[in-house]
Amino acid sequence: MTISQLIIFILIIQIIHALGTWKLYIKAGRQAWEAFIPVYNAIVLMKIINRPWWWTILLFLPIVNLIMLPVVWVETARSFGKNMPVDTVLAVVTLGFYNYYLNYVADVTYVEDRSLKPITSAGDWVSSILFAIVAATIVHTYFIQPFTIPSSSLEKSLLVGDFLFVSKFHYGARIPMTTVAAPMVHDTIPKLGIKSYLFDDNFSNRKSSWKNKLQLPYLRFPGFEDIERNDIVVFNQPADTLLDMNNFNPDRNYYKPIDKKTNLVKRCVGIAGDSLEVRNGFVYINGKKNELPDRAHLQFSYYVQPKNSQFNPALLKKRYDITDNFGIINNQNTYYFSAISDEALAKFKNNPNVASIKPNIKEKGVRDSNIFPHDPNYNWNVDFFGPLYIPEEGKTININLEVLPLYKRVITEYEGNTLQVQGNQILINGEVAKTYTFKQNYYWMMGDNRHNSIDARAWGFVPFNHVVGKPVFIWMSWDGLSNPRWKRFFTTVSGSGKATSFLIPFLVLLLGWFGFNKWKDKKKKTA
The whole model's pTM is what? Predict the structure, then answer.
């Protein structure tokens, strides 16, 4: 759905509302024309049903409005004396068209001073639950969303079992594109295992499906900062349109809405306009080695040869705080450790039971077929990669068959153009193209765990419209099912120096708040 289509759709909804309620407006002492003015009619309706004006805002917030619209339909019926359970059911199941019956057929009278308190305890309970869901959905969708770290991609900075609060407003909250979806869940409803949203994921029918008309265009509220190098960012994985996630074919196999793609968290090592290269496992930006924050710890894989039978890999892994697991290579007397930081390595290599430690660095020029851009002309691997230019909005590059593998997915998948190759010519939207101007910014997301992270080296650029938010706070952390990491509770994600836990100050404030409320209640009783 384009912006113009969205405006037309909203106007149609406004006309449907006006035709079904204008007589009710008159019975409530308003003018008939007030039912026909978009947005203003909703403000007037809030006065008619005796609800606050700011409910109007909720009616226009995607996802939230799916909850609020039925509430308003029911409230409208009750404002004209229709309080029976059957009226409530009819208002909801007819998708608001019950108002047409009230407007043209039923003999109803406006109840000006009706009580807003639910008649039954069940009604009170339902009302409380509904508005709790509305409040939580607003916070979850537009302000702060909780996430859990499932993998060791950013180990040492973010640990497996960390529970995060991710800010949506730092980079600007993205308005949900998938309008018909269950609130506060991602692509699957927990326990049920079914899709949480209405969408046709059959790519061949994508353009003609009526379900896709319900998709909103990409819109984002203004943020108060831009993505900077080395920011940790939560985003929707671009490659989540691939049928086989282990086979990163650059062509799409099926369609999935952007905001329902898998959420990932990585470090943004390259921003729009940068030239990026990986040498010997280290990132270079515009020719200079990227300097990570002091809380970041790069990790690489190593082959470890023990000196004697006293070598205990499990014990050493725990002693030196080594990330991830280990294994024996082909029944030889050599162990493979998939992620060791420099700090751990300095201690590990001096252990008296270790004979040698050899880094597992890929040879330059040896191609890995799983590495972007998945083209035989690019002999890149996880340790030697690039250089390549990261697209910047408004910037133009020369496009030819040599660089096309790098930007084909950007031009087609992310920016919605058609692309054909005829001999030595590239046709974009049916016209011969020798240059291309990018429509949005792109970023390069990588894990600090360089040999155990599926990241941009596998699937390429991350468009800005895929960005979800910025992790800002770790509110809880567990090592396994029963071991809390108390020092990580209530710590910040970014910042310099060792992370400090604010758990004790939080608990003191919480106890103080409870104590103050108890004192206030006691004072009221004695007054």
Answer: 0.86
